[in-house]
Amino acid sequence: MGLASFAPALRPLFLLQNNTPDVELELTAAPGEASIQPGAPTRVWEFMGRVLRGPATTLETIPGSYLGSVIRLRKGQRVRIRFHNHLPEPSIVHWHGLDVPDVADGHPRLTVEGGRDYVYDFEVINRAGTYW
Ligand SMILES: [Cu+2]
Questions:
Q1: Maximum CA pair distance of the chain?
Q2: Which of 40, 46, 67, 111 could make an S-S bridge to 90, C-beta 3.0–4.6 Å?
């Protein structure tokens, strides 16, 4: 058994020892309306984000779009994201491509009911790239 196999287990301990994140976001999923085609607005489920700690440039809203905010993170940042599920069914967020601890990966077994929250804690260890 090599040292690498211990690394995932050690990461949560590191976060417990120094749990002040560099970046803290609030991310809310909720029903909304968007103008997608001419005429009546379309009912959508959308994300709204807010920066609680860290650079204001971490979140970039796409003007006029119901698509979620772009989250800009840097390698080495410790990140906490407070996900609020205001949808009428269970949900969770998966950060496709980011190498994060299992409990922060948004697997469907971790979904939370509407009205509930889920808190993600992880460190960005990936190189620059686009992840969704
Ligand atoms: Cu994925």
A1: 62
A2: 111
Range of the domain at 98: 22-31+41-123
Residue 117 located in a structural domain: yes
Ligand 1 centroid to Cα of residue 97, in Å, is 6
pLDDT digits (tens, 9 = 90+) for 64-98: 788 888 999 999 999 999 999 999 999 999 999 99
Any idea what the CATH number is for the domain that residue 72 is in?
2.60.40.420
Interval between CA 6 and ligand 1 midpoint (Å): 23
Instruction: Give the per-residue pLDDT at 17.
Output: 53
**Distance in Å, CA 46 to ligand 1 centroid:** 19
